[in-house]
């Protein structure tokens, strides 16, 4: 178990992150444990999370989405614009 003070953590976050790749790092505040830094993979294992970040960011099933396909009144007619420019 690795323990570092809040002061040491603030001075060298990179070191704490490197240590956390191998095991959780306990961060102390005035000598008492206050936080735990661990890799995301370790967090997934202890939380039972099975989805990857890609799964979480994926679009929902599109068969459940309702799309409004009615044309809006504010749409412009392309042929009208092209005819006006000729002259």
TrEMBL record:
Annotated segments matching region Disordered:
64-87
Q: Please give the superkingdom of this protein's source.
A: Bacteria
Q: What InterPro entries is this protein classified in?
A: Antitoxin_Phd/YefM, YefM-like_sf
Q: What does this protein do?
A: Antitoxin component of a type II toxin-antitoxin (TA) system.
Instruction: Return the similarity comment.
Output: Belongs to the phD/YefM antitoxin family.
Would you tell me the protein name for this molecule? Antitoxin
Q: What is the originating organism of this protein? A: Asticcacaulis benevestitus DSM 16100 = ATCC BAA-896
């Amino acid at each position: 178990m690795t323990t570092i003070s809040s002061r040491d953590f603030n001075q060298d976050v990179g070191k704490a992150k490197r240590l956390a790749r191998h095991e959780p790092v306990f961060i102390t505040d005035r000598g008492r444990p206050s936080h735990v830094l661990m890799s995301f993979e370790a967090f997934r294992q202890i939380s039972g999370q099975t989805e990857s970040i890609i799964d979480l960011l994926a679009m929902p099933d599109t068969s459940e989405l309702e799309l409004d396909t009615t044309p809006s009144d504010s749409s412009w007619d392309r042929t009208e614009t092209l005819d006006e420019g000729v002259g």
